Each structure stands twice: as structure tokens, then as C-alpha cells.
Amino acid sequence: MRARYASIDIGTNTLRLLIAEIVNGKLKPIFLKRTITRLGGDYKEELGIAATAQERTIKALEFFAEKIKEYDVKEVKAVATSVVRRAKNKKEFLSKVLERTGVEVRVISGDEEARLSLLGVLSVIRDGHKKCLVVDIGGGSTEFIATDAGKMVGAWSMEMGVVHLTENYLKTDPPTKRELNTMESEIERIIYDLRFTIYDLGFLNPKSEIRNPESEVFIGTAGTITTLAAIDQGLEKYDPEKINNYVIRYETVKRIYRHLASIPLQKREEILSLEKGREDIIIPGAAIVLKTMEGFGFDSMTVSDAGLLEGILFR
């Protein structure tokens, strides 16, 4: 039997486990599990990660540890991202994880998160040889990565995550127009500042109102993006093969965003293509996609199911 390896991504909203074999330089997934634990829920700067969120997450990691033993995994690499990076009580949390699961977790920087995500994305995307702007939308932060011919030109980790946007701006069910406008203004401000940083690199032409997909591609990865692709296709059961390299248009994202923002949470829960536990945060996630496309002039987005988990194993 080939050696099996596992990667764990401890995100602000979602925990993910991938167990895979590496065959001829490619990953052969054996087991994949994602669980929404909302580790960043009720986060307080002065206190750090909430005790209830820690407990939800550690219980899910205990299940992951059982699966790792069951599949006789040779080596495990576990990383934690945004909310753990900034938490005052991260050492306490990581000590609890190690004590109860035996899994040692490494906290990675936003720059390393971007680099690892890019490795995963480029392993499945057909247009990776072009100029690409890659976005990885997370619960606590959003990573933007500029690439040219498969090489990273720059990476930026922005404090603009869907969990924090939801808790800070969306208080009503469904959100009011004022709440949405305030949230959108915050996203637009961050995109506006980032746009000039990227333009200063000479990466994208600032005069282009609409990008040429033959030479410049917008790529999205992580839960928000893959959920939008699943909704657009009406998938009742998630299928990575139907997600990777799927192209979703700007007008479609706008339509989905407006619809989801106009209906109450209970109605969103009835949408089979919408991952359970993502019914509230899909609204700011879709808004980030929309405002990024508007800010940089992209009319379409290519979707990648692969990202950080796969990148960890390739590294």
C-alpha cells in the first residue's frame, strides 16, 4: 500500500481534512471531510477565541484524529490561519488541541497561506499559465494572489473575512438595505486600496475596464466560491469534478447575491446547493466576489475546489 498523508486546515469558519496518496506527483484523495465549527464566532480582540467555539472545533478535530488513525496515515500536517493568528489565547487553544487529539498545529502567516493555496489552485486550473488574480475568501481574512505564468508576483492577506463581516454588519434577517450598503462600502474600500497596490506592480492594466479572458483570468477558491458554483449549477450533491474550472459570470454572481440577501435565513437553509452552516456568511462572501470583479474589471470567475489543503500536501 502506498504511503498516505493528511493535511488539516483550521480556518475561522471551517475545518477541513484531506487524506491522500501521492501518485506520479499528483494527489489521489482517499478521504475528505469539511466541518463548519465557526471558530471565529463571538471572537473578541481582548479575550481571543471564545470557549464554546474552541470546544466545537476540538471535538471536530478529535473525529479527524480518529480518521487519521483509521487510514493509517504516515504523516500529518495541520495549519491554522486567520483567527488563530490574531488570537491572544492561541497558545492555550493549540495546547488543548495537542493534548486531546495528538495533532500538532502550526500557525501560518497570511503570506504562507497564500503561497500554499496557490500551489493547490494551480494543480487543477487549466488557465494557470496566464496572468491570474486568485482570491481565497476565508472566515477571518481574504487572500489575494497575483500570478504570471504560474509564478507568484505578489500576495496580500486582507482583514476581510466572512464571519467578521457577518457579525459586524448583518444584524437583521434578512439584512436591511442599509446594512448591506455599509458592508459593501467596507469591502469596496479594501478593494480600492488593494487595486492601486496591484496596479503599482504593473501587473494589470489600470485603464482596462473589462479584462481580456484570453490573457487575464480571475480565479476563486474556498467555500464561498465553490458554493456559488454549486448554486449556479443547482447541484444537490457536491461534486468537485463539476466545480473545478467551472466559469461563473459576473451577472450570475450579482443575481445570486441579490436573491440570497433578500430572503430570510430559513429560506436560505432550504437551498440544497448551499452548504449547511454557510447560510448567513454566503452573503458577505458573494459581496466580496462581486466587488472584486467590479473593482478589477473581471466579467467572469474560474472556480477551483483545490486550495490550501492540497497545497499543504504538495509542499
Short key terms for the protein model shown above:
315 residues, alpha/beta, Nucleotidyltransferase, domain 5, 2 domains, six-stranded mixed sheet, five-stranded mixed sheet, 43% helix
Explain what you see.
The chain is α/β, with parallel strands linked by helices and 315 residues long. It has two domains: 4-108, Nucleotidyltransferase, domain 5, CATH 3.30.420.40; 126-313, Exopolyphosphatase. Domain 2 (Nucleotidyltransferase, domain 5). Helices cover 43% and strands 23% of the residues. Helix 6 (177-200) packs across helix 11. The radius of gyration is 19 Å and the shape is globular. The two termini are 22 Å apart.
Short summary of the structure?
The chain has 315 residues and is an alpha/beta fold.
